[in-house]
TrEMBL record:
It comes from Streptomyces zhihengii. Keywords: Hydrolase. This is Serine/threonine-protein phosphatase. The keyword Metal-binding does not apply. Residues 167-382 form the PPM-type phosphatase domain.
Length: 400
């Protein structure tokens, strides 16, 4: 058995809380590593928190303006030399989901650049095992917290599929603010061989009641999707679930989309307030849909789908009403003009970084007072499937 296979086997067999110990022992024995540190990105994506025996056992490192932050943001190794050693900072990312950074201190007599591919392999193996280990330990989840979550935020974060996802045909990223005290906004996605299904939800209310409502709606949508129902029927089943429980006293606004990875054709159901903007050829435009009733308002609501087409090179941005309705001190909603400027200003950023950048712009636009509502942003870049003839062509407008 070669060294890499033996390491993977040992990592898989380690106790969930001991993954970093196995990595440290391996890197110390193989390369003479003097220090190994794992940091997880916090929920607000502002700091990298050390994984340790106790929550907050190490000082956080800022995402912006630090070597670890550069590795995390650029998704590339960052090397720094100091005295007789070199620190190698490497992103820990699995299928586009950015988990954190592994930092390895090596003696400066190594050719550290040549070791980077081997260290990246270690990071990939570690990332996969972290995702599995989180079923059995709170260690890595606790490391993501720069502050205590409200109970509602705890429920919402556990509901989410991740913060980013990449595949050959697309890449997407999502972010929620305020990260530690969420109200009712949520999202979900699922990828199959030929389809991406995306849901953006905006539940009414605050606190626990909003979190319970969002959990019911998202899980009803998942239940319908996993039963093989079409998009309109998914909305109908979720609508019935919410109405059956709340009898019209509460509702959830949802935008449902199903992308065909082979053709770029998209089905959509607009059941409420989340909105979509498209950046194409340096032009930003809001994409309108026929508004249908939010889920749970009335008994036996009927939903229909619309269709449009995405082209390779399109960037789509989705926002909850906490984004486009947030007003400047002068009273102008962010969605009127400022959001389009922000989308144009972030064209060079990958989708995983766009939502956080847009929300930073939103905070500055809104002023000193805190936002009145959740702010959810999702960014999707469409690449198309290679070899399918999915070349830029005429788009089909929603409803056609």
């Amino acid at each position: 058995m070669d060294r890499s296979a033996a390491f993977e086997r040992e990592l898989r067999g380690a106790a969930p809380h001991a993954l970093l110990d196995v990595v440290t022992a391996e890197l110390t024995e193989r390369y003479g590593a003097e220090k190994v540190e794992l940091r997880m990105a916090d929920y607000a994506m502002r700091s990298l928190q050390a994984v340790g025996d106790q929550p907050g056992s190490g000082e956080p490192v800022a995402v912006h303006g630090t070597p670890q932050g550069r590795a995390f943001g650029a998704q590339e190794p960052a090397l720094t030399r100091d005295g007789g050693h070199v620190d190698v900072h490497l992103p820990v990312t699995i299928r586009g989901d950015r988990l954190g950074v592994l930092s390895v201190r090596l003696p400066d007599d190594h050719n550290s650049q040549e070791l980077v591919p081997e260290l990246e392999y270690v990071c990939q193996a570690l990332g996969h095992e972290i995702l599995v280990a989180e079923r059995d330990t709170d260690l890595y989840i606790l490391a993501r917290r720069a502050a205590r979550l409200t109970l509602a935020a705890e429920m919402q974060w556990q509901l989410l599929p991740g913060r980013s996802c990449e595949r050959t045909e697309f890449a997407l990223g999502a972010h929620l603010e305020p990260a530690y005290a969420i109200f009712g906004d949520s999202y979900d996605w699922s990828v199959s061989a030929d389809h991406l299904t995306l849901a953006i939800a905006n539940g009414m209310g605050e606190g626990i009641e909003a979190a319970l409502l969002s959990n019911l709606a998202i899980n009803a949508l998942r239940n319908a999707r996993r039963a093989g129902l079409g998009l309109a029927d998914q909305a109908t089943l979720a609508d019935q679930a919410v109405y059956s429980h709340y009898q019209g006293r509460a509702h959830v606004s949802v935008l449902l989309l199903r992308f065909d990875c082979r053709t770029g054709e998209v089905e959509a159901v607009d059941a409420g307030s989340p909105r979509m903007w498209r950046l194409r050829d340096r032009a930003v435009e809001a994409v309108p849909f026929d508004h249908q009733l939010p889920l749970g308002m009335f008994e036996d609501s009927v939903y229909t789908t619309q269709s449009f087409t995405v082209r390779p090179g399109d960037r789509l941005l989705f926002g909850s009403d906490g984004v486009y309705d947030a007003a400047s001190p002068g009273g102008e909603p962010y969605g009127d003009r400022a959001l389009a400027r922000s989308l144009l200003g972030t064209t060079l950023l990958p989708p995983a970084q766009v939502p956080h950048a847009v929300l930073r712009e939103l905070a500055g636009y809104h002023g000193e007072s805190p936002l009145d509502d959740d702010a959810l942003v999702i960014c999707l870049d469409w690449y198309g499937r290679p070899g399918t003839g999915d070349a830029p062509g005429a788009a089909v407008a929603p409803g056609s």
